[in-house]
Amino acid sequence: MKIIDLRSDTVTKPTEEMRYAMANAVVGDDVYGDDETVMELERLAADICGKEAALFTPSGTMANQIAIMTLCKRGDEIILGRKSHIAYYEVGAAAVLAGVSYSAVDNADEIITPKDIAERVRGRNVHFPDTGLLCLENALSSGRVIGLDDMKLAYDEAKRCGVPVYLDGARLFNAAVHLGVEAREITQYCDALMFCVSKGLCAPVGSLLVGSADFVAKARRNRKMLGGGMRQAGVLAAAGLIAVGEMTKRLHIDHENAKYLADEMDKFDGVSVDYSKLAINLVFFTIDRAGFDHAGLADKLLAQGVKINAGTNGLYRFVTHNDACRADIDKVLEILRPMF
Question: pTM for the whole thing?
Fold first, then answer.
């Protein structure tokens, strides 16, 4: 039985082209800086984002934490969204590893405005931490995408206040597809950023940390400190090259499938799709139906070959990706329909 996995776009398997490239990759020792495939991926990442240099890291969380360690000093405070990945899903790592505290913005639309920044940048006072960094996110973990105008407004205000700007761009290319722009049109509004190649782009491992040459040189040292220095990492970078060069071109299909899934789900009695969060490949919906077995839904679906994450207070998220085609989505709908 084929398993249809809607838990996340991190579950994608490497394509056959990736597997071939990985098996035949030219490798060296990346810690020594002589893995040619890793260097090629880093050059591509820097170029596509309009920056000077890039660093291949094992994960997006590590890339985020390296960036904070590199851009901040211990005791600083960082401005970020309360529901951002860094604040919500990274085990409080910035406090543990970089020794920074959070000034969290909690706007309903999750957009950080110039007013939010101006109110949170600390003045020189013996009682206050220094404001070390503004952390933006695009696309947001909620499925929303921040427009270029809002990115620019936040960036300009941060620069006016002398605060560097970092972008968690785990799903950067999804955001670019939604906005109809090249990735560098988004990344012009940050000093450094990260994007994942294993989240929706089918590579098995890795994220790229991108910024100035000086930033990347310092980040490389912090990567080593965290145990992220890899040896013959070209085996992984080979898949990353295909992820960035090819798989980004098909993300619109995931977005179309998400819209299709959302529209069909919204027809079910008791199901309400949150269309305000349907910008990319994430479908958020609630089930409000008397007597519905929320606790057993995941197990019921798994018994029929569908993996989902259990809902929280009736809120669910389904994620479309390369390994869940339109026929798979129709199969999921066919299984769900009798429940409503």
Answer: 0.96
